[in-house]
Structures are given as C-alpha cells and as structure tokens.
Write a structure and sequence with these properties.
The chain is an alpha/beta fold. Helices cover about 30% and strands about 30% of the residues. The longest helix has 22 residues. The radius of gyration is 20 Å and the shape is globular.
C-alpha cells in the first residue's frame, strides 16, 4: 500500500508537538515538514510533494483557509483549530475534516483515515480511462465507469453521493462505487429526486428516514450533514409530499 507524506503547520509549538506525536503513530503516514506559519508551508510546497496537510486556521499573516485557497494543487487538508465557527469555511474549501482543539489521538486517527481513504480512492479513480462518449442513461438507470468496466446502477438504489474533489463516491444499499465525475457534473445529470444538501453531499430524497435541523438520516443507517443554504430546497420537496391535515 502507498505511504503518504504529511506536513503540519501551527503557530503554537505545543500544538505542533502534540499533532506530530499523534501522526507519527499512524501507519502509512510520513511527516516531511513541520511549519510555524502559512508562509513556510508555501515555501515547502514549492519544492516538495505533500499529500496531507494538518493545518491550524487562525495564524498570523495568512490563515489556514487563505493558504488552502491560494494553492493550485491542494493536498488533502485536515484543519485543527480552537474555533468551531470556522467549520463552514473549512468545508467550503473541501477540507477532509475539521477538528476542534484540543485534538486527541482518536480524533486525529479518524481524520487521517479519512484522508488516506480519499487519497487511495483518488489514485484508483485516476487510473480509469478517459471516456470520450458517455454511456446512455435510461429512464431509471445510468452507467458509471469503474476499473472493472461499466457499472449499471438504478437511480432508486442510490442512497447518497459524496464529493471527493475531482471524483465522487456513490453509496447504494450494498456497495460503494467510485466514479471520475465531480459532484457538480453529477448534480446536473441526476433526476429531480436527488437534492444537494451540503457542499459535499447529494441525497436521494426517496431514501430519507428523518430530517433533523442539521442532519439527514437515510436508509442503511447512513447520515449526512444538512447545510443552512440547502435546507429550504430540501424542505420544499418534502413539503410537497407531506400528507395534509386538511384534505379537500
């Protein structure tokens, strides 16, 4: 299995040391650089390949979020910060995870495993051949290209779709499929019962179990976050299917 290179950036020495100690315990990860600020990170990235960045957000001169926005080829990013208010901004730049300090080993491990999974899937997806012409979609099914060939899926069996940057993971009742199509392009081609509920998630409303204030629970014990901006569109679709107390 591939090992991945890491960079840690935090302006607090104690925090840097703690994150370094945790990351060194995780298999498949190799720390290449430890930085005090975002400027140092930019200098490292100019000469070295880094797969994962563990970054503080509130740093002098340039914040962690501004740093990520400035990068052309962004590594997998895990934000670690004292301020939970940055959560929305962090996912707007496609962060893999967001950790509120004090970080624990269990939380660093969970985020790191998500980053490793993302990088593994990205490597797998990049091996897929580029298809000049899409396979035709039917009224109730579509095709995706995977390493083993074309896979036929029905819209009904799809529970939700998760963005992984340039590619997407499609979750069905029994499997997870990887396709080299980003979430934006998938959204344009899906029927009306698929709704974007978060920057990183599209759900099949036919698979909803419960809608909570900030989360949607789906079949197969899946759940995804519900953003404030997407909530109204989802509620409009649900309302149109809600049984009324007063039937005429």
């Amino acid at each position: 299995m591939t090992n991945y290179t890491c960079l840690i950036v935090d302006d607090n020495e104690i925090e840097r040391d703690a994150i370094e100690m945790f990351v060194r315990k995780i298999e498949r990860l190799k720390i290449k650089s430890i930085c005090k600020n975002a400027i140092e990170v930019s200098n490292v990235l100019a000469t070295q390949h880094i797969d994962i960045i563990y970054s503080d957000i509130d740093m002098p001169d340039l914040s962690g979020i501004s740093l990520v926005k400035s990068l052309k080829n962004t590594p997998a990013v895990i934000f670690i910060t004292s301020f939970s208010d940055y959560a929305v901004q962090s996912f707007d730049v496609d962060a893999i995870d967001f950790i509120v300090k004090p970080a624990t080993f269990d939380r660093i491990l969970k985020a790191s495993n998500k980053a490793i999974e993302y990088l593994d899937l990205k490597a797998k997806a990049e091996k897929l051949p580029i298809v000049e012409q899409d396979q035709p979609n039917g009224d109730d099914y579509f095709y995706i290209k995977e390493t083993k060939g074309y896979t036929r899926l029905t819209y009904n069996e799809v529970i939700y779709i998760e963005s992984m940057g340039d590619f997407s993971k499609i979750f069905t009742q029994n499997n997870m499929h990887v396709t080299l199509v980003n979430l934006k392009n998938l959204e344009r081609q899906l029927p009306a019962n698929f709704v974007r509920v978060h920057k990183q998630f599209i759900i099949n409303i036919e698979r909803i179990v419960t809608v909570a204030p900030s989360e949607v629970f789906l079949n197969n014990d899946f759940s995804v976050p519900l953003s404030i901006n997407a909530k109204q569109e989802l509620m409009d679709k649900i309302t149109s299917k809600t049984i009324s107390r007063h039937f005429k």
